[in-house]
Amino acid sequence: MFVRSVIVAEQTVVTIAPAPYFVRVQRPQPHQPTPPFNAPAARRLRAALDMGPEHVAYGMRVSYGLPYVTPDLVVAWERGTTTPNGPELTALASVLWCSPAELIGAPRTLREHRVSRGLAQEDIARAVGLELLAYQRMEEADEWRGNERQSVVLADTLELSLRDFVTVTGRDDKLAELLRSAVTTRWQAYVRPLGKMIPLDRRLLEDALQEMHTEYQGQMVATLSWGDGSTAADADDSGRDFLDRIVDQFWAMLQRSTY
Prior knowledge:
By secondary structure, the chain is mainly alpha-helical. It has helices at residues 39-48, 53-64, 71-79, 86-95, 110-116, 121-128, 132-141, 148-157, 162-168, 172-184, 191-197, 202-224, 232-244, 246-257; strands at residues 2-8, 11-17. It is elongated and about 65 Å long. The N and C termini lie far apart (69 Å).
């Protein structure tokens, strides 16, 4: 029941009207990009618990204070037509008895790595020794500007692999530039600048650069030597494809070398 007041001839008349049976609560619009969401994993985990979308929605409403979550919204998440924001993903993971990381695709940004670990911005700022506002600005701009000590603490707090650390700290483009130069010219000249960027054993780095240089140069020579009408343009295409994938190839080669 709710009370409605009506002013009639300067007198207040109070009438009683039946309350609506259901009040739809508007889902708040996220102020930040949502983390990458693994929709098939969410659906699989729910099915493994023998839960319906209505059970998930009920748990998120009652236990986590998200009154707008409906079974239709849960289904939309599982179909990939929309994605949960940070608080929604954390609540969903709790209802599904899993960690947020299990519902997130491969994290790419600083924010996505933080969310995948279930940490708040305050946690990271405190750990690395930054003012909260300063950290928030870095996260929003996706541009890490901490010093070397803070970077080490960040990597430890977020459990970043070396590749993730390079990506999160915004060094992917510079890495690609140095690697392209190394395989197209003298690789030896790029051991030192790459070593400054990536804390790797020097011998491991040298072996990786030498192997990539040999592979690239050999591929270019082979393309020009096919003898079936191939031209310099074919070699250019082959070389461009190699250079476009050079960062992925570098990390894959290092992984093979360490096993």
